[in-house]
Specification:
The structure is a single chain. The protein is α/β, with parallel strands linked by helices. The chain has eleven helices and seven strands. Helix 1 runs parallel beside helix 11 and helix 4 packs across helix 5.
């Protein structure tokens, strides 16, 4: 099914495709968009049902597979006439989608940047938690999801010292349609283990992780980088899971250094 994706398309140069996480939208990349667009064509969509992208193509009971989101992105590149291979930047769920994009659309990739994400599938407990949220979110409302998630997404220093950002993240999650939340949770719960893929990745991959990430830990992402033939890890200080927002200066600098290395 074709999904119409609301998209920011800004700047000129080698294309960079920014794929947001769950349950967010393209605005999580606002700091990176502004900086990277000075030297790159930056494409930042809202995934189907998130942000300003329509919800009509989604069933909360069936869910949206990570492969379906990946195919949406490939169709978006077609629509935007992007013929040059892209650097795909995936945050959290965007990273899960990136693995599927690699498997299904390898020819469209120049490199990958994987932020605060995993290659492994969910544990049985994590899968059950996703199914519970998918089942009840329409009754709970998205604001309840924000209450549950925000403390896990941010570093203690952010939670205690940046009230404005805490409120902003809560607001972004609260505005998300519960149908999109349920569908994404089912898709993530059913995703396959991508760990065996790492050793066969035949392109440069930068892994980025917040030092205080409770969800995608530094040790887990170091293991992923070590398993990737051309992989490297950058740890971001003063950041939890939401490193691109918590410490945007450091994350953007890491991205820019990596992108510059692709041209050297």
């Amino acid at each position: 099914m074709n999904a119409q994706l609301h998209t920011i398309d800004q700047g000129e140069g080698p294309p960079v495709l920014l794929v947001h996480g769950f349950p967010m939208d393209h605005t999580m990349w606002r700091f990176q968009i502004e900086s990277l667009a000075a030297s790159h064509r930056v494409i930042a969509p809202d995934l189907r049902g998130f942000g300003q992208s329509p919800i009509e193509s989604i069933s909360s009971k069936i869910g949206v597979a990570m492969a379906d989101y990946a195919d949406d992105l490939a169709r978006l590149l077609d629509k935007l006439a992007v013929e040059e291979p892209v650097t795909l930047v995936g945050f959290s769920m965007g990273g899960y989608i990136s693995w599927q994009f690699y498997k299904r659309h390898r020819q469209r990739l120049r490199a990958m940047i994987q932020c605060d994400t995993k290659a492994a599938a969910d544990t049985p407990q994590a899968r059950e938690t996703r199914f519970k949220m998918a089942e009840h979110v329409e009754g709970w409302g998205a604001a309840h999801v924000a209450t549950l998630m925000v403390p896990k997404l941010l570093a203690p220093s952010t939670l205690q010292g940046n009230t404005k950002l805490v409120e902003e993240i809560g607001g972004m999650i609260s505005r998300t349609d519960p149908v999109a939340i349920a569908a994404a949770q089912r898709g993530m719960a059913h995703r396959e283990d991508s760990t065996p893929l790492l050793e066969s990745l035949d392109l440069p991959v930068l892994y980025v992780v917040g030092q205080d990430d409770q969800i995608s830990t530094t040790s887990e992402m170091q293991t992923m980088a070590d398993a990737t033939p051309d992989g490297r890890l950058v740890t971001i200080p003063n950041a939890g899971h939401l490193s691109p927002i918590e410490n945007p200066t450091a994350v953007t600098a890491a991205m820019e250094e990596f992108l510059a290395s692709l041209s050297s």
